[in-house]
Amino acid sequence: MSTLPVSRPPRLMGILNITPDSFSDGGRYLEPEAAVARALRMLEEGADILDIGGESTRPGSAPVPPEEQQRRVLDVIRVLRERLPQGVPLSIDTTWASVARAALAAGADWINDTSAGLDDPGMLPLAAEQHAPIVLMHRSGTPQTMQQAPSYADVVGEVRDHLAARAEAALAAGVRECDILLDPGIGFGKTQAHNLALLAGLGRLVELGLPVLLGTSRKGFLGALCGHVAPHERVAATCATTALGVMQGVAVFRVHDVAANRQAADVAWAISGFSTGV
Fold first, then answer.
1. Where does the UniProt annotation place the signal sequence (predicted)?
2. Domain 11-272 belongs to what topology?
3. Which pLDDT does position 6 carry in this prediction?
């Protein structure tokens, strides 16, 4: 298994959705050849990790059975494992332990679980058994319900407490501390105000001492802020959040548009290092 990169500079996780219904690129990479070509392109553009998913988790999306998720992703993972340079991690984006296990056997290295191990009680023990890095994300409700009037008294504090609790659950299940990443779940059961508060408060999550992953790429709240532009027109807006995250200590950024976000991350990282005297 690949060891978890926790040191700076920040890493980019390229998104590969092998789905017909993802909000931004659904249907574009259903054919294995197209998916592999897209993955290799993102690697050329500066991706450090590739995140492969066979189920959309956009608001309102329907669950995809684990057997169908495996049908969509396993062949792509096998081909990429053969063709990628040594040491490039592949991540499986799923909340099902059976899908994660099959993906790890096919050549994946990481698990990206949008339920933080709550949907399937077998997920955390699997990560522990396989010594697999796992992303634990905050999500309020399910994709079907999460945007139905989400409410928090203190969104940053509540998300922080939830992630801390899920990290403790992972540790109790035997996951190594060095294999845990935390994701605030931008857009997953949050209003625009909640998303903005979380972005402004990323430093409070970083203070937990575990690497933070940020996923804002092309999301709807960015489109609303920029005049309700379409997903593919939200690249610059995404880059703004990447630069902001770098300055607050975020370790990994999950993005569609790798080349642009690579530039944003590298410039912000250079400024951050200069300002601290590095």
1. none
2. TIM Barrel (3.20.20)
3. 42
